[in-house]
Amino acid sequence: MILLALLSTKPLPPLPHIFGRGVDSGSVPWTILFTLTLLTLLPAIVLSMTPMVRLLVVFHFLRQALGTQTAPSNQVLMGLGLMMTWFLIQPVLADVEKQAVDPFRQGQLTGLEAIERGCDPPRLYMLRYAREKDLALFTAAALVPKPNRPQDLPLRVVAPAYMLSELKAGFEIGAVLFLPFLLVDMIVASITTSIGMFQLPPVVISTPLKILLFVMADGWNLLAGSLLKSF
């Protein structure tokens, strides 16, 4: 989250030492190493700590329900998921910039202090959607003492609990999304079977009907609106 906020704002001044406020000759290699490590982990962070988990699950359920196999392609679904994720996560990035990035630029915080402060807004965001059952599971597995409030849980507990909760929510939405298209498949299969069209696979007829139904109902608009309202 800190890295996303850094990339979305004005360039940084000369890089300070990531573990302190001063600049020395040995600070640049450590800063480069730290930045490259964050860039390597960025895809995993985006997939695990943002709404993209739920969005991608629902999009793939939709593609399976329509029976279009590879349309839209994975790249298109990933791009749509990234844009919607960027739209939804903007308030969190603004909080990260205000609490961590700006003080770090002004030299008021060290790198480690900025990271610690910058983790608070994403933690609060994930706690909003993480189920208590999932939080309890990872709290017990990590042998973490039960905190007085959920905000005191470490990020290593909150992040996997959030992912499980988002996967559950995505599967719930996908199951509901599947039902009308399943109904079309059943109707087409019963009709083709009753008139003796055994050599014609029902999917050949049902797929264009499902696509037509989805387009006529303005499905993408309805789906995007429902997903945005679910957050």
UniProtKB/TrEMBL annotation:
Topology term for the membrane: Multi-pass membrane protein
Function summary: Plays a role in the flagellum-specific transport system.
Keyword Ubl conjugation: no
GO cellular component, one term: bacterial-type flagellum basal body
Positions of transmembrane segments: 30-56, 173-197, 209-228
Compartments in which it is found: Cell membrane; Bacterial flagellum basal body
Domain of life the protein comes from: Bacteria
Gene responsible for this protein: fliP
Protein name (database record): Flagellar biosynthetic protein FliP
Entries under Pfam families matching the protein: FliP (PF00813)
Keywords: Bacterial flagellum, Bacterial flagellum biogenesis, Bacterial flagellum protein export, Cell membrane, Cell projection, Cilium, Flagellum, Membrane, Protein transport, Transmembrane, Transmembrane helix, Transport
Classification via InterPro entries: FliP, T3SS_IM_P
Coarse class of the protein's main subcellular location: membrane
GO BP annotations, alphabetical order: bacterial-type flagellum organization; protein secretion
Family: Belongs to the FliP/MopC/SpaP family.
The UniProt record lists the keyword Glycoprotein: no
